[in-house]
Design goal:
heterodimer, A: 225 residues, alpha/beta, Rossmann fold, 7-stranded parallel sheet, 8 strands, globular, B: 116 residues, alpha+beta, hypothetical protein PF0899 fold, 3-stranded antiparallel sheet, 2 helices
Amino acid sequence: MSVITVPVDRDLQAERRAAAAGFRNELTRRGILCVNLISSPGAGKTTLLQATATAWPTPGRLAVLVGDIATDRDAERLAPFMPVKQLTTGGACHLELALVQRGLAALDLEGIEILFIENVGNLVCPASHDLGEHLRVVALSVTEGDDKPGKYPKAFRTSQACVVTKFDLLPHVPFDVSRFQTDARLVQPVLSFFSMCALSGFGMDEWRNYLQEQRRILLEETASA
Amino acid sequence: MHETSLAEALLRQVTAVRDERRLKRIRSVTIQLGTFSGVEPVLLKTAFEERSQRWFGAAAELLIESVELRAECEACRLQFEVEGFRFECPACTNEHVRIVQGENLMLLRLSAETES
């Protein structure tokens, strides 16, 4: 018996990265903008999606895959607004690509412009998992505090847009919007910010315009490719 | 808390290498782990070592080489260590920087017993 050292040098994420890129390309080819929505539990992801669907100019253009550890409560809430498939992780703290792809098989994507993935409520693990989305959006409610970007840097670093939700509660909580934005821009300078009260519709026009613009860019890139 | 699924992914890779190279007992596994990989090293080490007993019949040690988070400035091309998650070029204060290192998880090498 002898002991040897075997060099391997294998990137453990290479396979996952390639799979996510392949999925993204497939959605791009079909003209579907995929948006991965992440936040802590209770930030208002589901309400934001309900309001987004209500404000969308053409009905039947949005679809959603919604992840939770347990129950199909979010799917029940979203079903009146758009085609939805609930993904239950059975304890896992984030969605993974394989689960998303399985869930997608249950949705009819004909005519769909935007596919939302509402991730499991968690600002940590979802940040490390590329689900093949074109756009990652982090939502944060004003009740959670303005110090979160520095505490959860990866969630903000890997996002392109940030929706600050429950904005109507701002007068009642010590949330400094400019401190929050400064903190977030330290980790991600190109972050687009949206102030939102999904229940009243405040901020919805800017958010909807942003999503429409992002899809237009996607279609242009597809056309020129 | 996705360290347990990562530990199992790592064990699958190690098993594949062991079988390819016809190795016997795995003594230790060395990985490179970026500080911005989103993986907690202590949790991964515990998860791996606990499971290795069951997978290999004998515990294998997980050795982790930590890799700092580094970025490159898109304006002046300076490469620098990102401290305190401040993604700003220390030379020209440009905020458009690209991560070049620190997000990775690499299986570097194994130490194993052979028959000969």
